[in-house]
Specification:
CATH topology of one domain: Jelly Rolls
Structural class: alpha+beta
CATH architecture of one domain: Sandwich
Number of helices: 13
Shape: globular
Length: 644
C-alpha cells in the first residue's frame, strides 16, 4: 500500500527570493532531477520545481507518494523517503504537467567542487586515455554544472545527469571519478557525482553573501556586486569586463571590427606601444592594429598566435573575431585560431592591452611574438602597427577591484552553481581548492570554516562529511629553510587546521605528488583514492587507513627533539634515498636543516648548528622533500611545532 509522506508546501527560506521572476520561464521540475540520476539513500529527499500557484503536484517512486501545493511565488517542493538502495526506479511527477524520469538509482550523492584541479578532466591525466576507455560504470552517474556566475540567487542549475561511459567521462573531474569508482567498488552502492568546479576561483567565490558580510575584507566587493546587479546587463562574475563596458572607448566603438577605420591612429610597435602613445608609466588601455599577409594556400592544421607574457591583460581579435584573452600575467599567451578565421592574403590583427605597471605591456622579446601556422611556419608580429589610447586610467580615474577575466568575485559561483542545487539530499562534499587563495593565506583559515558552515546550512542536512585535498608540491625547491613560509605552505596549514577543528571533516595529504613547473599535476590517482579512503573510513565505517603520520607531540632530548605521531599504522617508512625534510631552530628562531632518523614510531631530529633545539618543522615549503610515510603507503602531513 502506498505511504503518504511528509509534504513541504513552501519554498525553503533561504531561497525565497529566487522566484520573484516570471515562473513561466522556470521548469516544472528542476533539472537537478533527471533520468539517470542518483537519489540519496537513507534520508528524506526533496524534489522541487515551478508551476501555477495553487496547483497540486504529486510525486511517486516505487509506491511511495508525496504531494505539494504550488506556493504563491510559483515554487513547489515535496519531501519523500526514497526506496532502498539500488534500482532502477521511475520517478513520476504529476500536476499541471506530467513528467516521468526513468533509470533512477538510489545510492550516495557526492558534491565535487573547487577550482581547476578538481575540474581537471579524466582524459588529461596520466594514463587518462586508458582510464576513459574502460569507464563503463552504469552504477556511477554524473552531473556536471557549466560555469554560471550570478549576482543574485539563481534558480536553475546549469547541467544534466548522464551515465558514466567512455563517451561522457573524458572531460569530467578525474578526482571525482576516481573517488567514486573506488567507493562504488568497495561498497557496491550506486554513486552520483555532481561536479561544480571552476578554474582559478578563490574560496570566497563559492560562499554566500550572508556568510561573507561578517568579514570586513569583503565589504567593498559585496557593495560593488550590488551596484553592478542594479545596473543590469551581463553577469560576468569578474570586475574587469564591467570596467571595460563602462570605460573602454575602443570596445564601445568597435575597434576590434575588421573594417574599423584606423587611419587616425598613430604609428606604434607592440614592444614600445605605450611609450609611442605617450603613456610610458601610467595605467592605461591601448589598442593596436596591423595587417599580416599569409600564404596561399594556407597550411593545413591548427594555427596559433603567441604573445608571450603580457602585463596585465590582453584581448585578441583576428579579422573581427574574438580569439582569446587572459589576465594571468605569468602565463605566456598562446591562443588557438579557429580554422575559419584566417584566409590567404591580408588578415587584420587587433590586440587590446591593459597595462597597470610602468614596465607593463608585452614582456617577451619581439622575436617571440608571432603567428604559428599549421605547418609550423611563423609570421613575426613585431613591426609597424597602429595604436590608439582607449582609457587613460591615471588617478583619479577609477580602477577595477580585480583584473581576472574569469569568475572570481565573492559569492557569484555560490549564487549561480551551489544555491540552485540545494536542498538536494546528498552524502557529502569533496573540495580541492586553495591555489587561488595563496596570496592571502591567513584569511583562508576563516574562509574554509565559513564555507563549510555555509554549505551545510544551505543544504539543511546537518554536518554532512566534507573532505578536503591539501595542496600538492609546486614551484621550485628552496635550498635553505624558510623563516617565513610561502603562501602555498600557509594554505596547506590552514587546510590542516580546518580538518582538525571543524567537525566531520577530513583531509587527503598529497604533498608527495605534484610538479614543480605545473600547477595542474597529471597524477590524479592518489588524490581520488586518498579521498575515497577518508570516506570509506569515516562515512562508510570501513576498517581502512585514511591518513598518514600526523604530528601529535614533541619531546625535548639532550641536543635533539623527538617527534611523536598519530597515524603510524604499519610503522614509519622512508620512501626515497633519505628521510626529509626536517628543520630545527633554537630560541633564536634561526632555522637549520636537521638530521633525522626513525626510532620506533617516532622521529628524532637534531642539527650540530642548533645545540638546543626547541622547535621543528617538516616539509615546510611549497615543494618539499617529503619522504616519510606510514606502512599503509600514506605520506606524513607537513607541520610545524612552533607558532612563530
Amino acid at each position: 500500500m502506498k505511504r503518504l509522506l511528509s509534504v513541504t508546501l513552501l519554498a525553503f527560506v533561504f531561497c525565497a527570493s529566487l522566484f520573484a521572476a516570471d515562473t513561466a520561464a522556470l521548469p516544472f521540475v528542476s533539472p537537478v532531477f533527471g533520468e539517470h540520476m542518483v537519489l540519496q539513500r537513507g534520508k528524506p529527499n526533496r524534489v522541487w520545481g515551478w508551476s501555477t500557484p495553487g496547483a497540486e503536484v504529486r510525486v511517486e517512486i516505487a509506491g511511495n507518494t508525496a504531494k505539494a501545493v504550488v506556493a504563491a511565488d510559483g515554487h513547489w517542493q515535496a519531501e519523500f523517503t526514497p526506496p532502498p538502495a539500488g534500482g532502477p526506479y521511475v520517478l513520476k511527477i504529476d500536476g499541471p504537467q506530467h513528467v516521468e524520469l526513468a533509470d533512477i538509482l538510489v545510492g550516495d550523492v557526492w558534491l565535487c567542487s573547487g577550482q581547476s584541479n578538481m575540474e581537471y578532466g579524466l582524459a588529461r591525466i596520466l594514463d587518462g586515455e586508458a582510464a576513459v576507455k574502460t569507464a563503463n560504470h552504469l552504477s556511477i552517474r554524473l552531473f556536471r554544472l557549466s560555469t554560471k556566475p550570478a549576482y543574485g540567487a539563481a534558480a536553475v542549475p546549469p547541467g544534466r545527469w548522464q551515465l558514466c561511459t567512455p563517451e561522457t567521462i573524458g572531460s569530467f573531474s578525474a578526482v571525482g571519478f576516481i573517488f567514486g569508482r573506488k567507493v562504488n567498488a568497495e561498497t557496491g552502492v550506486p554513486i552520483g557525482l555532481i561536479q561544480a568546479a571552476v578554474g582559478g576561483t578563490p574560496a570566497e567565490t563559492w560562499m554566500s553573501p550572508d556568510a561573507l558580510r561578517s568579514m570586513p575584507d569583503f565589504t567593498a566587493a559585496l557593495t560593488e556586486i550590488e551596484r553592478l546587479k542594479a545596473l543590469g546587463g551581463e553577469q560576468y562574475g569578474n570586475y574587469i569586463n564591467h570596467w571595460y563596458d563602462e570605460f573602454d572607448r575602443g570596445q564601445k566603438e568597435g575597434w576590434g571590427n575588421e573594417k574599423f577605420d584606423d587611419s587616425a591612429w598613430k604609428p606604434a610597435t607592440l614592444k614600445s606601444g605605450f611609450v609611442d602613445l605617450g603613456l610610458p608609466e601610467t595605467v592605461a588601455v591601448c589598442w593596436f592594429r596591423r595587417e599580416v599577409t599569409l600564404p596561399d594556400p594556407l597550411p593545413a592544421g591548427a594555427a596559433k598566435i603567441l604573445l608571450g607574457v603580457v602585463e596585465r591583460m590582453d584581448t585578441v581579435f583576428i579579422n573581427g573575431r574574438w580569439i582569446g584573452a587572459s589576465a594571468w600575467v605569468e602565463n605566456p599567451r598562446a591562443y588557438t585560431i579557429g580554422a575559419e578565421v584566417l584566409h590567404p592574403g591580408k588578415n587584420q590583427v587587433t590586440i587590446r592591452v591593459l597595462k597597470t605597471k610602468a614596465d607593463g605591456g608585452f614582456m617577451t622579446p619581439a622575436a617571440d611574438l608571432k603567428l604559428v601556422l599549421g605547418d609550423g611556419s611563423t609570421v613575426l608580429l613585431e613591426g609597424a602597427w597602429k595604436g590608439a589610447v582607449s582609457v587613460d586610467a591615471r588617478a583619479p580615474h577609477p580602477l577595477p577591484l580585480g583584473y581576472e577575466n574569469y569568475p572570481t568575485m565573492p559569492t557569484v559561483l555560490f549564487q549561480g552553481m551551489i544555491r540552485p542545487l540545494a536542498p538536494l539530499a546528498l552524502t557529502g562534499a569533496l573540495w580541492y581548492q586553495g591555489e587561488a587563495n595563496q596570496f592571502k593565506p591567513l584569511q583562508y583559515r576563516g574562509l574554509m570554516a565559513g564555507l563549510i558552515a555555509d554549505w551545510r546550512a544551505a543544504f539543511g542536512q546537518g554536518d554532512f562529511p566534507f573532505y578536503l585535498v591539501s595542496l600538492p608540491a609546486f614551484m621550485g625547491r628552496t635550498a635553505e629553510p624558510q623563516a617565513t613560509p610561502d603562501g602555498w605552505t600557509q594554505v596547506r596549514e590552514a587546510q590542516m587546521q580546518t580538518a582538525q577543528t571543524v567537525p566531520h571533516t577530513g583531509i587527503a595529504i598529497i604533498v608527495d605528488t605534484g610538479e614543480a613547473g605545473d600547477i595542474h599535476p597529471k597524477d590524479k590517482l592518489p588524490v581520488g583514492e586518498r579521498l575515497a579512503r577518508l570516506a570509506l573510513k569515516h562515512t562508510y565505517g570501513r576498517d581502512v587507513v585514511c591518513i598518514g603520520p600526523t604530528f601529535a607531540a614533541l619531546d625535548t632530548m639532550p641536543g635533539a627533539l623527538r617527534i611523536r605521531y598519530s597515524g603510524t599504522e604499519g610503522g614509519l617508512v622512508v620512501k626515497g634515498e633519505k628521510l626529509g625534510e626536517f628543520a630545527v631552530a633554537g630560541a633564536d628562531r634561526v632555522w637549520r636543516w636537521a638530521e633525522a632518523r626513525i626510532d620506533g614510531e617516532t622521529v628524532v631530529v637534531s642539527s650540530p648548528q642548533v645545540p638546543q633545539p626547541v622547535a621543528v618543522r617538516y616539509a615546510w615549503q611549497a615543494n618539499p622533500l617529503a619522504t616519510l610515510y606510514n606502512g599503509a603507503g600514506l605520506p606524513a602531513a607537513p607541520f610545524r611545532s612552533d607558532d612563530w
